[in-house]
Design a protein that fits this description.
By secondary structure, the protein is an alpha+beta fold. The protein is built from 5 helices and 8 strands; from the N terminus they run E-H-H-H-H-E-E-E-E-E-E-H-E. Helix 1 runs antiparallel to helix 3 and helix 2 runs antiparallel to helix 3.
Length: 178
Amino acid sequence: MAKQEVCVRSALHRGDYRKLTYWNMFGKDRRVGALFGAMLLVGAVLLGCFFDNLSCRILGIVFCACPVLAILIMEFQILRVLRRGNLEARTEAEYRLGPGGVAAYSAALPDGLCCAWEKIGGVYETRLFYLFFINRVQMFTIRKTDLSPAERRVLLSLVHAHVPQAAMHLREAEAPRD
């Protein structure tokens, strides 16, 4: 039987943080982008068709401003995080994935943070990362480039063996074959 454990060191690079933040906002759940688009459309209609009505004009400005303000606030938060310096050193962690779950060890968490597979809220695969959500906000982030092909196969087989189908959001639907 093949080894069913992966141990990998991974960290976010400077550009990764922005990509992940935008993916988390718009890519993970397309409804947010659709909502922002609908707000802009409604705002444009209110401003274009009912500009003479003060209430509609104010409502149109609010509808158009909300998505723009949300993105500006998100950009401000991203810049705050990046300004603290050396993101790679702050996010570097050693991840251990095995039959018992996922664990992360870092300078901030020397004793580690362990999460059983049953507690994983979702596993996502993006173009650059494997993301393991341990709750709605926190996630373990493993760069694909930090994994060897063999480690990737083991990681995917562990996910397919322990994570319910509804919580898996992988690019390849089938488990890898050895």
